[in-house]
C-alpha cells in the first residue's frame, strides 16, 4: 500500500467513527420508543425533575421528554416533533423508519464502502416510489364510510382506556354528521375541540365548551336563544402611567371623559345589536366596559384569539374588529348558553348548522388523563388525515407490501438500487416491530403473508393472518406518507455528516467567519 493510500484509509476510518457514533446515538433514542409501537406496545412511566409522574405510550411525548445532548440524537427528537405538528400521529412509526434506514445505510457505507451520496440518491428514488405506491393503494373514504370508525379505533384504541376514548370520538363524529349545514370539506381538527380535565367525567357536548371563571355575574343558569356578539378589538383601559405623564389636570379629565364616551358608545352599540352575551378578544380587559355591560344585563366574556375564531366558525358569526362597524352589526343567536360555576365551564349549545362539538376528556388521575387526551387527539388526527388522503391496511401490512414491490427485480439497477433497498428494509421493519412488541416472532409470521395483496397482515389481538380491512385495522395513508418523509429528511442529513464541529459562537457558525480558529473538531 502506498503512503497516500494508507492516508486515505485513515481518513475513511475517521469518518466512519463519526458515522458509527451518530448511528449509535440515533438507535439509542429510537430504542426507547420502538417498544411502544402498536397496540401491544408497552407504556413508559416518565418522571420529571419535580417528581411528577406520567404514564405514556406516546412516541412523541417520550421523545420530547428525553433529555439528550447528542446533536444527532436531537435530530431524531425533531422527527417526532415535526410529525406531531404536521399530522398529529405516527410519530413512533417515523422514528422506527428512521432508525432502520440509518442502521442499513450505515452498514452499506462501513461494510461495503459505498459513498453516502450514492445511497442517498437511491433512497430518494425509493421514497418517491413508496409515496406513489401509498397513494395508489389508498382507498378514498367519506364521512359516512364505516371504515372511518375503524381508523379512529386503530389510532386511538391501542392506548390506556382505548375503547372508552374511541367511543368519545365516534360520538363526536356522529354528532357532526347530524349537522344541517354543508359537510363537504369538514375539518375534524377544527370541528372537534378537546378539553382535558382530570376531575370531570368524560363527555361529548353538542357545541362549544369554554373553561372560564366568571365572577360577579347575575346571569341566569340558562339563556335560551341568546343574542351573541363577537368583538376583537383593543379596548384599552386608561393607565395610571399615562395620567402621571400628563402635564395638567384638564388633560386628565379630558382623557377620562373621552374614554367614558368611547365605552358608552361601545356598550350602546352592543345593546342596540340585541346581544345578551358578548365575547371579547382584547389584549386588555376594560373593567369599566365589563361593569357597564353587566349593569345592563349583558354577559361579557373575555376570550382568546383562538376561542373567538372557533366561536365565529361554529355559529357563523362575524367578528367585529373596528369600532366604526359596531353600529352596523346585529347579534347572532346561540341556542342555549349556560354556566356551570362549580366546574368553571361555559356551555354554548349548537344551532342546527352544528359545525363544532367538544370532547371533555376526564380521567381518574392527572397521570392517566393526559394519556387519554392524547389517544383522543390521535383518533381525531387520523380521522382527519383519512378523509383527506384515504385509508390503507394497518399493522404494517401496507408497508410490507410496498417493501416487497420496491425489491422487485427489474425496477432497480446499479448501485442506486442499494439505496432503494434501504427504504424497503425500513418499511418491512414496521410490521416486524409491531409483531415483536406483541410477543410474536416477526420473521415467522411475516413469511406467511409476504406474497399476499397488501391488505393482509397480522392482527395482533388475534395473532391471525387476516385481511386488515376486514379485521378493522385501518390507517390513514397521509400519516404513513408523512412518517416516511419526516424520517427520510433526517436520515439523509445524518448519513451526510462525517464530522461534528463545535462552533465557538452562533454568530461565527452562521457567517462562517474565521472558520479555522472559530471551530474545533469534537472528539466523540
Ligand atoms: P404511532 O406513534 O406510529 O402512531 P402506535 O403505537 O400508535 O404508533 O402504533 C400504530 C401502528 O399500530 C399502526 O401501524 C397500526 O396499524 C398498528 N396497529 C393498530 N392496531 C393493530 C392491531 N390490532 N393489529 C396490528 N397492528 C395494529
Ligand atoms: Mg398512533
Summarize the structure in words.
This protein has 524 residues and is an alpha/beta fold. The chain has 3 domains: 2-139 and 392-495, GROEL, domain 1; 147-206 and 359-389, 2-Layer Sandwich (GROEL, domain 2), CATH 3.30.260; 209-353, GroEL. It is built from 20 helices and 18 strands. It has helices at residues 3-34, 59-65, 71-86, 91-112, 116-137, 147-156, 162-177, 188-191, 240-245, 249-273, 287-295, 305-315, 366-389, 397-407, 416-437, 442-449, 468-471, 477-496, 506-511, 515-518, and strands at 44-47, 53-56, 192-196, 203-205, 207-211, 222-232, 277-281, 299-302, 319-320, 332-340, 345-349, 357-361, 391-393, 456-459, 464-467, 474-476, 501-503, 519-521. The strands form 6 sheets. Strands 5, 6, 7, 8, 9, 10 and 11 form a 7-stranded mixed β-sheet that branches. β14 and β15 (464-467) form a beta hairpin. α3 packs antiparallel against α4 (91-112), α6 packs antiparallel against α13 (366-389) and α7 crosses α13 (366-389). The chain is elongated, with a radius of gyration of 29 Å. The model is unreliable at 1-14 and 509-524 (pLDDT under 50). The structure holds adenosine-5'-diphosphate and magnesium ion (MG).
Task: Output mean pLDDT.
Answer: 84
Amount of helix: 40-55%
Distance between the termini: 29 Å
| CATH class term of the largest domain | Mainly Alpha
* Biggest pleated sheet: 7 strands, mixed
Indicate the radius of gyration in whole angstroms. 29 Å
Structural class: alpha/beta
- Unreliable parts: 1-14, 509-524
Count up the helices: 20
Bound molecules: adenosine-5'-diphosphate, magnesium ion
